[in-house]
Amino acid sequence: MKYESVIGLEVHVELKTKTKIFCGCSTEFGAEPNTHVCPVCLGLPGVLPVLNKEVLHYAVKAGLALHCDILPFSKFDRKNYYYPDLPKNFQTSQFDLPICKGGYIDIDVDGKQRRIHLTRIHMEEDAGKLVHSGGSIANSDSTSVDYNRTGVPLLEIVGEPELRSGAEARAYLEKLRSIMQYLGVSDCRLEEGSMRCDANISVRPVGSDKLGTKTEIKNINSFSAVQKGIEYEAVRQAQILDEGGTIQQATRGWDEAKGITILQRVKEGDSDYRYFPEPDLIPIEVSPEYIEQVRQELPEMPDARCPRFQDELGLSEYDANLLTLEKQTADYFEAVVKEGVDAKEAANW
User: Fold this and answer.
1) Are 226 and 201 in contact (CB under 8 A)?
2) How many helices (H) and strands (E) does the chain have?
3) 3-state helix, strand, coil in the chain (%, to 5)
4) Would you say 283 and 293 are in contact if contact means Cβ atoms under 8 Å apart?
5) How far is the CA of 237 from the CAs of 205, 229, 232, 242, in angstroms?
6) d(Cα 124, Cα 118) in Å, to the nearest integer?
7) In terms of CB atoms within 10 Å, which of 41, 209, 305, 319 comes out highest?
8) CA-based end-to-end distance of the chain
9) E strands in 15-89
């Protein structure tokens, strides 16, 4: 093998709150367009946002489950860019002082276990949704904007560039979804966009420790698409390098029908977003007592439940992994066993 892939994932998880991050509008999915909106989430003049307390609670909960450090002092920032689905012309996010730093996710691919470290987790608001009259923006006569999703609370979970294949990226996402569902902070329904992934991919000669120029595939909404998109992009970049070309840092989209990535725009850097502290929101201070209170709420996680099913109930590693992937399944299985059913027989059913 001549080249090695270097992959880092940025995952957006929509939090399962009843109302948006800075206003009282509903977060319910599937409503009529532009019915779950108000002056705050539309960014009309003279309004002031107020942080939804449950968003902070879920962020701390997720950070603890992912072994992060919870920052005692964090703040919100304005990320400035223009796009039609962003009514304020900026996104309220977190930049240099996020709520969580560090952390890790353990994955298993083909019997090989790896620990993938996290850079950070931060809170932010979602943008709206563009609805094209055709199949895509390229062949549409018109585009409508639905602002119902604007202001829906998100956690952005940023991983270190330590993944080395599409299969590892898929395992990472499956594990992350399982953890978020166990916590009850998100339903992670990819088909509804409540879990979305941006994949940063570069290639470098095997043995090199220098990072190559990366491209980013935006808003991939299925695990198979993430794996296929990464594998395609790695091959595309390797072919360019073999032909003596250079990789352009850019944002690309995944075309499922054609099985290729497509150039969308040249990639911005942090300086292009002109981050500055959000003046309408006070900084967030989290006490050690509050962090410990949230820690006591954590359920038994898959990494602890899986070996317990093997040790206490005599299940195989395969059966235990399968049964603990989703909390609802694991809870039901344990309830059946407590009624006196043999664990292996219950597992088979």
Assistant:
1) no
2) 8, 17
3) 30, 30, 40
4) no
5) 12, 12, 9, 9
6) 17
7) 41
8) 43
9) 69-70, 73-74, 77-80
SS3 at position 109:
strand
153: nearest Cα among 69, 219, 94, 218? 94
CA distances from 177 to 47, 105, 135, 143, 327 (A): 35, 11, 29, 32, 11
Residue 291: its H or E element: helix 288-295
Three-point CA angle 324, 328, 329, nearest 5°: 50
Residue 180 Rama label (left phi>0; alpha psi -120 to 50; beta): alpha
Helix, strand, or coil (residue 232): helix
Residue pair 252/216 in contact (Cβ under 8 Å)? The answer is yes
Alpha helices in 21-152 (DSSP H): 53-65
- Tokens 């952005």 correspond to what residue? 156
The Cα–Cα gap between 50 and 52 comes to: 6
**What is the pTM assigned to this prediction?**
0.93
CB atoms within 10 A of CB 107: 21
Query: Residue-wise pLDDT tens for the chain (349 aa)?
Result: 799 999 999 999 999 999 999 999 999 999 999 999 999 999 999 999 999 999 999 999 999 999 999 999 999 999 999 889 999 999 999 999 999 999 999 999 988 999 999 999 999 999 999 998 887 777 889 999 999 999 999 999 999 999 999 999 999 999 999 999 999 999 999 888 899 999 999 999 999 999 999 999 987 879 999 999 999 999 999 999 999 999 999 999 999 889 999 998 886 666 789 999 999 999 999 999 999 999 999 999 999 999 999 999 999 999 999 999 999 999 999 999 999 999 999 999 9
| Alpha-carbon span 78 to 98, nearest angstrom | 13
Q: For the chain, give every domain's residue range.
A: 3-298, 300-349
250's tokens = 């850019």
How many Cα atoms sit within 13 Å of 315 on the Cβ side? 27
